[in-house]
Amino acid sequence: MSRAVESDLVERLLDGEHRALARAITKIESQSPGYRDIVSELHAHTGDASVVGITGSPGAGKSTLVDKLAKYYRDQGETVGVIAVDPSSPYTGGAVLGDRIRMASNVGDMDVFFRSMSARGQLGGLSTATADAVKALDAFGKDRIIIETVGAGQNEVDVVKTADTVVVLVQPGSGDDVQMLKAGILEIGDLFVVNKADMEGASRTVAELQEMIHLRDDPRANLDTGHHGADAFDDESADAEASDAPDDPLVWTPQVLETVATTGEGIDELVETLDEHRDYLDASGELAEKARKRAGEEIRQLLRSDVNRLLEAELDRRGGVDEFAEAVVEKETDPYAVAEDVLEPFRECLDGRDD
Question: Mean of the pLDDT values across residues 243-247?
Answer without folding.
Answer: 44
